[in-house]
Specification:
Helix content of chain B: 10-25%
Order of helices and strands of chain B: HHEEEEEEEE
Shape of chain B: elongated
Strand content of chain A: 35-45%
CATH architecture of one domain in chain A: Sandwich
CATH topology of one domain in chain A: Immunoglobulin-like
Distance between the termini of chain B: 46 Å
CATH architecture of the largest domain in chain B: Sandwich
Number of helices of chain A: 0
Helix content of chain A: under 10%
Largest sheet of chain A: 5 strands, mixed
CATH class of one domain in chain A: Mainly Beta
Oligomer: heterodimer
Distance between the termini of chain A: 78 Å
Strand content of chain B: 25-35%
Chain lengths: 135, 153
């Protein structure tokens, strides 16, 4: 093997402690994200395992982007746990955006539990030279 | 000593979800990894991917959260009572002109071995990968299934 890849380390899910109480009980976790940008767009990639696309919601208002996802439940009532190493619950995370985003062209894709949101930037306002007329 | 007392907590298993206590026990289990559990058969291994194992009278179910991999990067095998999950999670490079603000998602190889709680029918094991969750259904072997014993009067 030419390249050696590192082994993935175990990390516990980070639970979100919110001031506002939830109407539906259950635990809420903060998904791990990658955030990067180029000249055209800001992209957020979030791991949300177990969430089908119909359960994802993306909301942008007042420069605050909210991502949330509810996993589909697959554990039946007959089953009893023998070993439980991870907890399941909703995903929720918010970001304050510093760029002006073209809201009409936000794109989101969900693939194998990975959500990718592309937020195109509104082109920078061109500096406008203001003519001053004398007289 | 602390572990022993928590194990015997009377409310364990009564509530549906994992309680704070369950989590505390798991964290402790990871801390004291290697110490035998009092009445259990396995401790959290602290190895990626984390597994949830459950069972009913027919099957053993193993679930794991491994988002964003492709099927050819995932390998599941069963030998006797041992289940092995290996794979590699690759995060493709973005275009070179991007600037990263956060990089929390991890890429890399993983390998996890688990001893199953009962004998299973290796021929009928099924695995499914959906929404980033791996689920392996292992039918119990006939001799491992619970038998109802008729009582004659």
């Amino acid at each position: 093997m030419a390249t050696q890849t590192q082994d993935i380390q175990v990390r516990d899910k980070r639970e979100v402690k919110s001031d506002a109480e939830q109407t539906i009980p259950g635990r809420v976790f903060s998904p791990n994200v990658d955030i990067f940008e180029d000249d055209q767009a800001l992209t957020i990639v979030a791991d949300m395992p177990g969430v089908p696309s119909e359960n994802v919601s993306i909301d942008l208002r007042n420069d605050v982007l909210s991502l949330s996802g509810v996993p589909s439940v697959s554990v039946t009532e007959k089953e009893e746990y023998v070993l439980q190493e991870y907890d399941t619950g909703k995903y929720f995370r918010q970001f304050t955006l510093s760029e002006v985003i073209d809201q009409e062209h936000i794109e989101a894709k969900l693939n194998n539990g990975v959500l990718r949101v592309t937020l195109p930037k509104v082109g920078p306002a061109k500096p406008r030279k203001i003519e001053i007329t004398e007289g | 000593m602390l572990i022993r007392r928590l194990e015997n907590w009377p409310f364990e298993g009564l509530s549906g979800g994992a309680s704070e206590l369950d989590r505390l026990r798991r964290d402790l289990g990871r801390l004291f990894n290697g110490l035998p559990r009092v009445n259990g058969w396995d401790t959290p291994a602290g190895v990626f991917p984390l597994l949830n194992v459950s069972q009913d009278s027919e099957n053993v179910y193993v679930r794991s959260e491994v988002p964003g991999i492709t099927l050819d990067q995932l390998d599941v095998s069963v030998t006797g009572r041992s289940l092995t999950v290996t794979g590699e999670r690759a995060i493709p490079d973005e275009q070179s002109n991007v600037r990263y603000h956060r990089k929390e998602r991890e890429a890399g190889k993983f390998r996890r071995q688990l001893t199953l709680p009962t004998d299973v029918d290796n021929e009928r094991v099924q695995a499914k990968y959906q929404h980033g969750i791996l689920m392996v259904v292992l039918p119990k072997s006939e001799k491992a299934k619970p038998k109802k014993i008729a009582i004659s009067g």
